[in-house]
Amino acid sequence: MILVFxxxxxxxxxxxxxxxxxxxxxxxxxxxxxxxxxxxANFLIDDPxxxxxxxxxxxxxxxxxxxxxxxxxxxxxxxxxxxxQNRYLIAKEAIQLMRGETVKPYxxxxxxxxxxxxxxxxxxxxxxxxxxxxxxxKDISITTNTIHEKSRALYTLFIIVTxxxxxxxxxxxxxxxxxxxxxxxxxxxxxxxxxxxxxxxxEVQKMALAINNITAKMQAVENSRQxxxxxxxxxxxxxxxxMKVLADSLLSQENVPAELYREFMVDIAKEIERENKIIxxxxxxxxxxxxxxxxxxxxxxxxxxxxVLLKRLRPLAAKRNIEIIFESFRPVVAExxxxxxSLAFSNLVENAIKYNIDNGWIRVSLNADHKYFYVKxxxxxxxxxxxxxxxxxxxxxxVDKARSRETGGTGLGLSITRNAILMHKGAIKLxxxxxxxxxxxxxxxxxxxx
Length: 450
Prior knowledge:
Elements lengths: L1 H39 L11 H12 L2 E6 L4 E4 L12 H7 L7 E4 L2 E9 L6 E10 L1 H51 L13 H51 L5 H32 L7 E5 H17 L4 E6 L4 E5 H17 L6 E8 L3 E8 L21 H6 L6 H11 L3 E7 L3 E9 L5
Parallel strand pairs: 7-9
Antiparallel strand pairs: 1-2, 1-5, 3-4, 4-5, 6-8, 9-10, 10-12, 11-12
């Protein structure tokens, strides 16, 4: 608003100056022509044979002002008003002009402007007089004032229209935001399955889309949490149910044979071990879910770490005649939490053993560049179906539930592995084809950055 007002005032001032400059240029041209006539008449302005006096009066009337013709002695030879005829003019600007000094083309006073033009001799070499024209500038002022008044009216109209439009836009936007706020509050009450309407202005639409994306993620987290709680309850309840059935069977029978009693106790011990493994994995997962501040970072020789892990797991693989091959391309020392990453690597190798074929193989390779080190674990196992690969890292997810329980799996190993890698700002990728084996590739930074 202030910018528009300032621009308008500047435009009015520029109009006044341009109009005055144009008018004075025309007056100067007419005064130059009059000066030539005076020289031709040899200053005999009142000569009966000449109509020069009438022309001066006529020009003064046209200009709505006063014209003086002064000779070289500063005597006023003609005054269109007739007030100072034959008197002498004593003015600083006139003296300077006659001396050949530079004088401002015209002087302006309130409502009037004055211009002085020298009268030159026939050879245009010597100044022999002055034509002084005083003209009214009221016409320019009136036009400028008219423009100013119209501008003020336009400013007033512009302000009114601006406020009206702002009020209308404010009402419309407020109504949009009111509905938007109601929808958000409704979602805050727990109705995460509902969506904020994506309508209105672009900014409102962007906010609605952002909130819908957030609530969709929150809903996914909530669904995951509920599913996790349900799975935990189920997984913990299953061994307890089995133990209760076995115990009830023993209690319901009298004189149970020692062989049957021993068989049932062995089964109960297995269920206890299974329950213990689930609890331990859950505790590991809880630790992985904590912030990175829980990491115990230290420089670790990755080559030695993998060799120790594989040495411990080779007897387990040997039971099914599975060969474990370790390939190291260069020495690697990195900043990691040794306990958490040992658990992650162990889970992947143990899975490669559990879901491998008899007489199969497992290849573990280690490599590094200037920024990361890479661990690749490939096996000749059963592979993972393509439609299951996106869910393989989810908690309690099993491709083959029967076989997982048969091999002692809890469905938490890969989730623990991924969490450990993410805590180290790393990444894990999976490539698998059903019936042809699986390859996990892990990328971890050599230097840990919190």
